[in-house]
Design goal:
290 residues; Jelly Rolls; globular; mainly beta; single chain
């Protein structure tokens, strides 16, 4: 989060001294200047080894095929070194077998990520959900930990570090009626911008999806139509966060991370959400736009 302070030279020197005690991957943020805003807790962005993208097939359109329909090559669980067992491969698609527990994410579940950090890209995939199903696709995601009450590392939810392309059965899941102006329906920027037109197909049918990120400009596409556009790392982005459930007074860590999503390099993981419901993804490919 970009902050502007008015301070004396002595105060500046004191802040500089304190900042030197932080480790390379750990950031402790000062409390918001407003007295009623909670302080952001210390957190660590975990950096794990990534895959060699050159080992993946490039199709005739110049996209890397990051799911071959047969194996989980390149994929792992968020905060894990393996693929959780509720994620399987069925008829050439990645399937999550729902636990029915919403966001509880049982030990054999959890979110799935592709272990490579993308910056400027166009991602294409297809998805379908079961009746009343809810899921999402994350991009520019980070793996973030904080300390629990015993001083042990714990992973924060993936969605507090990155935008989410909503995946939903609009007709049968109550989330479609929550939020503002339909901004929790499929292909929406979750809880911030509604997809327009709303052209999702019913549960059990495949939908085409596209996410383009290029130098801060983001476009969501659904079933061959561009349904929204917005711009990261701008005042527009900050204002949207302040009007969402990720506002600094509601969730200070989420606001800090999302306002700077992608970190200093503006890059991050692609991820699929375990929201407790059956969901399928296939024909997953990505074009690097750098």
């Amino acid at each position: 989060m970009n902050k502007v302070y008015t301070m004396t030279a002595a105060a500046a020197a004191m802040i500089a001294l304190v900042s030197c005690t932080c480790s390379q991957n750990t950031k402790t943020t000062e409390a918001e200047t407003k007295s009623d805003a909670p302080a952001v807790p210390a957190y660590t962005v975990v950096e794990k080894p990534t895959v060699d993208l050159s080992q993946f097939i490039v199709d005739k359109d110049g996209y890397y095929v990051i799911f071959d329909g047969k194996t989980f090559n390149g994929w792992r669980g968020y905060g894990k070194d393996n693929v959780p067992s509720r994620w399987t491969i069925e008829d050439g698609a990645i399937k999550f077998a729902g636990s029915g527990g919403g966001e509880a994410q049982t030990g054999d579940g959890g979110d799935l990520i592709f272990a490579y950090k993308f910056k400027n890209f166009e991602l294409e995939f297809e998805w379908k959900v079961s009746k009343g199903g809810n899921s999402g696709v994350f991009y520019l995601a980070q793996e973030v930990t904080t300390k629990d009450e015993n001083g042990n590392d714990r992973y924060e939810p993936i969605y507090i570090s990155c935008p989410e392309y909503q995946v939903l059965d609009n007709e049968n899941h109550p989330d479609a009626k929550l939020g503002v102006n339909g901004n929790r329906k499929s292909a929406s920027l979750y809880d911030m911008i509604p997809a327009n037109p709303q052209n999702a197909k019913p549960f059990g049918e495949w939908n085409k999806a596209k996410i383009m990120v290029y130098k801060g400009t983001v476009v969501h596409g659904q079933n061959d139509a561009n349904v929204l556009e917005y711009h990261l790392w701008t005042q527009q982005w900050t204002d949207m966060l302040k009007a969402s459930k990720f506002a600094p007074e509601k969730w200070p860590l989420a606001f800090e991370l999302l306002n700077n999503c992608g970190g200093k390099n503006h890059e991050g993981y692609i991820g699929f959400q375990d929201h407790g419901d059956d969901v399928w993804f296939r024909n997953i490919r990505i074009k690097v736009l750098d």
